[in-house]
Amino acid sequence: MGKRPSRSPAPGTYTVWARALGTPGGQAKITTCATDISLTTPAVICSTLNEVFVRETGGSKFRNVTDALTTITLDPVADAAAVTACGGTTVSLFDPCLQGFFWQYDNNGLKLLQVRFYPKGA
User: Fold this and answer.
1) Residue extents of the structural domains in the chain
2) Is the pLDDT of residue 32 over 80?
3) Rounded Cα gap, residues 32 and 74, in angstroms
4) Which helix (H) or strand (E) holds 18?
C-alpha cells in the first residue's frame, strides 16, 4: 500500500499556497474529503492529513499546501475498501475511484484564509 501514479493530470499541473490573514487569534483546519463509492452505501471519507492555519501577530507567509489539498491519504484500516478500489493509500484529487471531492473547512475564528493556485513551473 502506498503511492501510485495519478490517473488524472489535474493535480500535477498546479501548486496550491495558503496563508491566514485577518485579526490575530483565529484558526482554521482544511481536510480533503470525497465519497467512497466502493461501499454498498456510499459514504464520505476524509484524508488522514490536514492543514491547520493559525493567525498570529505580524506578517503571515504563504505555505505550500499542494499535497494536503490535492490528495487524500486513506486510513488503511478504516478505509480498507477505498484503499482496495483506489489501489493504494494516496489518492489524487479527481481520481475516479472516489467521487464528489471537497474541502472540509473547520473555522474557529479565522477571518480570512487566502488560497492561491499557480501553474507548476511558474
Assistant:
1) 10-119
2) yes
3) 11
4) strand 14-21
| pTM summary value | 0.83
Looking at the DSSP bridge assignments, the partners of residue 53 are 28
DSSP 121: T
Question: pLDDT tens-digit profile of 80-113?
Answer: 999 999 999 999 988 999 999 999 999 999 989 9
Q: Which residues have C-beta within 8 Å of that of residue 5, sequence separation ≥ 6?
A: none
4: pLDDT strictly greater than 70: no
CB atoms within 10 A of CB 108: 11
CA distance 8 to 17: 21
Distance CA 43, CA 33 (A): 10
All residues at 6 or more sequence positions from 9 whose CB lies less than 8 Å from its CB, including other chains = none
